[in-house]
Amino acid sequence: MRRADLPRVVITGVGLTSPNGDDLETFRTNLLAGVSGVEEFEVRHVGRTLAGVCHFDALRHQKRRDVRRGTRAGSIAVYCASEALARAGLESDWLVPNRVGVYVGTTEHGNVETENEIHSVAQHDFDLSFWSHHHNPRTVANSPAGEVSLNLGLTGPAYCLGGACAAGNLGLIQGVQMLQLGEIDLALGGGVSESIHTFGIFASFRAQGALASHADPARASRPFDLDRNGIVVAEGGCLYALERLEDARARGAPILAEVVGHHVNSDASDFVLPLAERQNECMRAALESAGMSPADVDLVSTHATATEQGDIQECRAMREVFSDAPGVHVNNTKSYIGHAMGAAGALELAGNLPSFTDRVVHPTLNVERLDPECEMRGLVLDRPRTAERVDTILNLSFGMLGINSAVVLRRI
């Protein structure tokens, strides 16, 4: 089937938790007001460090026993899924359980639970009789999506997509594709992260010299800034309610945006270092799939993590793609909340969706001295900017092992 013949897919609901807001309205308000969600955080074996920490109420949609038995990533996913359905106006009696798909992007899963169990048995001279029988279901890769299906009684496909830090986009793309194939009638797609609860990720970034530090937590995450010194690790999640346009219109659903194009490719060059050439190809292919040119893009949500080469390579790719696109605006959300890993792409897109309505582009924070190698057309810094139009958004999300993703959305 040609792409032009595929059903159109739209976003009808957003459920999220971020370090600076647990719903889209609060998240957006804080992005426009410059409110950071980065704070000091105690990590086992690491000590006091900086992280983006969520403060959502897990018991809003789960019982205490389910929170105890499940995982932090699962609680984030359940919260986001439930909120997305509510925002889409989808009551439980409307849902056909086996026609709902759950597609959750994750960077990794199981590290937190395994570290906790090792810590527990270490207190008992490694007597493995103290190892929890809940460990296996907690650590299987499909756990966050499975916890959503259990909580909501959904019997359709529910699984996770491991896509490193591009995973949030992958969950969204998977939902779109399954709807277009007719496999389901409603998708919950996006990404989640519980990364701040594992000491291993902090220790690894520190060993790479890529863990951010700053006397002021709010100023620690500084993509594009000449004085950036690494990543602020964050937790969070964002899941979208996705429907075919004809179905959404038939029930009078709120329509936030249409997903009109996407692409995923791989660098095949290095374990951690990105490659501008492949990122360039990913952006262009996503736009081609949408039947658009770079000049059609009004807003680009960047991936930039505040690592030196990561930011430089992405900016290089963007300068090449948008060299003849004078109307483009460019921003970054990690400067507010840190890097939410598997949730990053989905969360960062959510914060920009309201631009379709108000034409306001939230800025990138903490750029006090712009790195000359990160200069690019349309970069919005320090304060919000009102655009002449925001009809198209390009959402970028890249990850380790060279995975690149780009999603194109259109106002409808």
What characteristics describe this protein?
globular, alpha/beta, 21% strand, 412 residues, three-stranded mixed sheet, Peroxisomal Thiolase, Chain A, domain 1, ten-stranded mixed sheet, 33% helix
Give a quick summary of the entry.
The protein has 412 residues and is of the alpha/beta class.
Our count of helices gives 14
- CATH fold label of the largest domain: Peroxisomal Thiolase, Chain A, domain 1
- What CATH architecture of the largest domain do you see? 3-Layer(aba) Sandwich
Total strands: the figure is 15
The spatial strand order of the largest sheet comes to: 5-4-6-8-1-9-15-14-10-11
The proportion of residues in beta strands is 15-25%
- Which overall shape is indicated by the principal axes computed on the Cα atoms? globular
Structural Rg: 20 Å
Kindly, what is the distance between the CA atoms of the first and last residues, rounded to a whole number of angstroms?
24 Å
Looking at the chains present, what oligomeric state does this protein adopt?
single chain
Mean pLDDT across all amino acids: 97
Indicate the percent of residues in helices.
25-40%
Characterization of the model:
A hairpin with a 3-residue loop joins strand 2 (38-43) and strand 3 (47-52). The model has no long low-confidence stretch (mean pLDDT 97). With 412 residues, the protein is α/β, with parallel strands linked by helices. Helix 3 (72-87) crosses helix 6 (143-152), helix 7 packs across helix 13 (344-352) and helix 10 (276-289) crosses helix 11 (308-321). It folds into two domains: 8-250, 3-Layer(aba) Sandwich (Peroxisomal Thiolase, Chain A, domain 1); 262-410, Thiolase/Chalcone synthase (Peroxisomal Thiolase, Chain A, domain 1, 3-Layer(aba) Sandwich). The strands form three sheets. Strands 5-4-6-8-1-9-15-14-10-11 form a ten-stranded mixed sheet, sandwiched between helices. Strands 2-3-7 form a three-stranded mixed sheet. The chain is globular, with a radius of gyration of 20 Å. It contains 14 helices and 15 strands. 33% of the residues lie in helices and 21% in strands.
